[in-house]
Amino acid sequence: MIALRKLAGLSTKNRLRKAAELLRGFEAEIRASRPVDSYYLAGLCETLVRSDTADAVRERAVKLEERLRKAGLSLSGPLSPDFGRECGVICTIILTELGTALADWDLRIPGTELLDSGARRVLPVDLFLEDLRSPFNVGNIFRSAEAFGVRHIYLSPATPSPEQPRASRSSMGASLAVPWSVCSLQEACLASGDSGNGTQVIALETGGTGIGSYSFPSGGLLLLGNEEWGLSEEALLRADVRLSIPMGGAKASLNVSVAAAITLQRWFESRQ
Question: Which residues span the domain enclosing 229?
Fold first, then answer.
């Protein structure tokens, strides 16, 4: 770590940027229950208090330093999770002041580092992502799918791969826990077991039955469409039912990953 005296000698912008980086490091170490140098962390807080920065940064740095000294400083000792949380909050305030916000995939969500796919409760529910454009949306859909028991995700050839860096980061590890494959709509229907085998194909699209009044089946294939154009005519014709999410806004539309999360939660809850 950079010497605190050297840190104090940097320009204000560089000092704050480096301080944010250090705080992120402390946050990660504390979350992992690893010992940290609380003497250094207290000195970092003192440096921030003396810096030309936002009042919120100085105020929280003062409180954190006081708490550290009250807890007892150590060159290599554990700190409770609340200290890590405070490091993260101060880091976020600094980055906001610098005009640099953390992206969702920069956040370290507890429990996502090593997802155990065997620990999931899986329903006979599959997804087909038809020609999505945004890797970020793909990753978010994987994250919701992992949370709500999706068995398999089928992607059209034009949909970004969950292995794409942005998709992988936004999935928070879920793309490693939920099985997936690339195929056509027809192949996805056959693999999932379409209506000919007693499994419903459900299109999530505007102008359909509201999800609140729909009785979700035990399993099925949910079709999700392109962010701008929605589902293709082929997909709508293939579906046994069209579902919609009732909305009261003037825009009357939702991001596809948000719509997927809402629908999957309803489906999962209905099977409890």
Answer: 119-270
**Tens of pLDDT along 78-136?**
899 989 989 988 998 898 888 875 554 455 545 444 455 566 789 999 999 998 999 99
- The CATH number covering residue 185 comes to 3.40.1280.10
Query: Which amino acid type is present at position 178?
Result: V
Q: Is residue 131 part of a domain?
A: yes
State pTM to two decimals. 0.67
Instruction: Looking at the structure, tell me whether residues 145 and 249 fall in a common domain.
Output: yes
The C-alpha atoms of residue 100 and residue 92 are separated, in whole angstroms, by: 9
47 close to 16: Cβ distance less than 8 angstroms: no
206 and 178 in a common domain: yes
Asked if 169 and 231 sit in the same domain, the reply is yes
3-state secondary structure of 236: helix
What is the distance, to the nearest Å, from the Cα of residue 158 to the centroid of all Cα atoms in its chain? 23
Closest by CA position to 64, among listed 93, 31, 86: 86
Closest CA to 147 of 63, 7, 262: 262
- Distance, in Å, from the CA atom of 84 to the CA atom of 41, rounded to the nearest integer, reads 11
Residues 91 and 203 in one domain: no
User: Six-digit token pair at 120?
Assistant: 């999931």
How far apart are the C-alpha atoms of 102 and 98, rounded to whole Å? 11
